[in-house]
Amino acid sequence: MSAGGTSARTYVAVFAALLALTGVTTGVSFADLGVLNTVVALAIAGVKGWLVTAYFMHLRGSSRVVWVFAATGFFWLGILIGLTFSDYRTRGWLGTPAEWPYDLGARKR
Predict the structure, then answer these.
(1) What domain range includes position 44?
(2) Which residues contact 7 (CB under 8 A, 6 or more apart)?
């Protein structure tokens, strides 16, 4: 390894932590926590995502410009998720016609 780089021991420790967190996620999925199941699973996923971006994508030791671009990517992901949820939430506002005037799938003989 080069001077100042991340050692193999660190990579193995992060990999072990990811495996342990995957086991915790699996264990939590079998526990009945009510509405907290989703919250706990997303919190664990967030920690795992941070470990991957910080160590395997080398974000931890990078410059502030790289941090800004990574944050911009997550901001854009948040916009896309927000727009998807708003579309899903407003699907029923216009209603569905009771009967279509024609059926494109049916053929008359």
Answers:
(1) 1-61
(2) 1
Residues 70, 50 share a domain = no
Number of domains in the chain: 2
Do 1 and 52 belong together in one domain?
yes
Same domain, 49 and 24: yes
Structural tokens at position 79: 């916009």
Task: Give the model confidence (pLDDT) of 2-18 as tens digits.
Answer: 446 788 999 999 999 99
Whole-prediction pTM value? 0.68
Query: Helix H segments across 5-101?
Result: 8-30, 36-51, 64-89
The pLDDT tens digits for 35-88 are 899 999 999 999 999 999 999 988 888 899 999 999 999 999 999 999 999 988
Cα-based distances in Å from 59 to 13, 86, 94: 17, 31, 45
Q: Fill in the amino acid letter for 49.
A: G
